[in-house]
Design a protein that fits this description.
The complex is a heterodimer. By secondary structure, chain A is an all-alpha fold. Chain A contains 3 helices and no strands. In chain A, helix 2 runs antiparallel to helix 3. The relative contact order of chain A is 0.05. Chain B has 2 domains: 75 residues, no CATH class; 284 residues, no CATH class. In chain B, helix 3 packs across helix 11, helix 4 packs antiparallel against helix 6 and helix 11 crosses helix 12. The chains are: A mainly alpha, B mainly alpha. At the A-B interface, helix 1, helix 2 and helix 3 of A face helix 2, helix 3, helix 4, helix 6 and helix 7 of B.
Chain lengths: 118, 362
Amino acid sequence: MANYIPILVFVLVAIGFLIVSLMAARIFRHGGKGGTNADPYECGNEADSLAHDHRFSIRYYLIAVLFVIFDVETIFLFPWAVMFDRLALFGFIEMMVFLAILVVGYVYVWNRGALDWA
Amino acid sequence: MQELRDILGPTLFYYAFSPAIKIAVVVFVGVLPLISYLVLAERKILGFIQVRTGPNRVGPWGLFQPIADIMKLLVKEDVIPNKAVKWAFVLAPCLVVGPAFVIFAVIPFGPSAAQTGGGLDYFITDVNIGVLFVVALATIGVYGIIIGGWSSNSKFSLLGGLRSAAQMISYEVPQGFSLVIPLLMAGTMSLQGIVGAQLEQGRWFLFAFFPFGLIAFMIYLIAGVAESNRNPFDLPEAESELVAGFHTEYTGMRFALFFLGEYANMIVISAVAVTLFLGGWARPFPNVEALSFLDASFLPAGLVGVLWFSLKLSVFLFVYIWFRGTFPRYRFDQLMDLGWKWLIPLSLVTLFAVGLWKVLLL
């Protein structure tokens, strides 16, 4: 556990760095003009609506769901890779069965067109 | 020194005080100057590629340009858009920079005290879940970018943030799979241990299980470039269509922090690639006696390790800049296709092949 103390120290240093740099900017910067200067950017036109008024494509959500499935897979692979020599053939077959199930899902998702963007 | 050790007690001295000094050295002598001069190097190299001179006005050969840039960013007006979600807008850049910095805590810049026989570890700490730690922290950057894009409440920012999040999580999958392959070869997750395994086996993991080590490395490299939002995968900030993507509304120091985070991520990804595939701080061909002059034994062994590490790291950083000067930007559907339809199957096949090879060797 003692190996993690330096990481904690580093986290504190990183937070300190962020606070100091933002504080320094607060001292040196010149003040905001306010008014239209702080309007959302829309190439110089007045914005007719806000970004939060609009919906966005469902595909981003789909990608996020697929990512969760695949990333959980990766988490299982890490300890398996480290223990590979001890698990030997049994571990290899076990993991390949696990991956095969994933591949079936992957092929299904691909066939249903979830991976096609256009 | 001895007095300090007595006051603090050995545990606190070895695990908090002495790392604190190393962290200060790594951040203020290593990473921050490296980032500022990486920006200059990038502009210079891009200038060279495009047959122009690049910045050359501030100081000799433009060497003081980074200092001028920092001073300019410090005095810039700070705009928080009136429609923005303020707390999230302020938090986002911090979420990008902080984690990227903390990853340097586990990067092995040089050999350990036991390996050199000296009294100094040339790294800050070594945890037995090293690779997992790097992956976990690198992911937090995605939150920073999507929070920044969403909270600005500007259409360009929102689109940039969404794109960026989709791109980064898509490429994290093949990146994760390709990281498993060096773990399979080394049998440990500690980054220092992985360098040790490469020394022991006498070859870089790039060349191990040929050609699968090489394929894994290429997948990691492509995914790494996409993860750090760099050309040719810089769609989140594609200036010709999205103005500046997720940081359209950011100015001054907050913009500088986003920038800092992007470059820190570049360095982290390169450093991990060097550690996992290119032998870390070890010299090339560590098992060939005839090349032992590369160890430069007139210098302290740890320092030589750090030098080799820096050399390999700079090659990677140059490749990043070279990519930017060479490749046109991908279209978004091509980008997703490359990640989901090419890199994921390829990395799964590579994983299977290396596993099978290892089983046959047992």
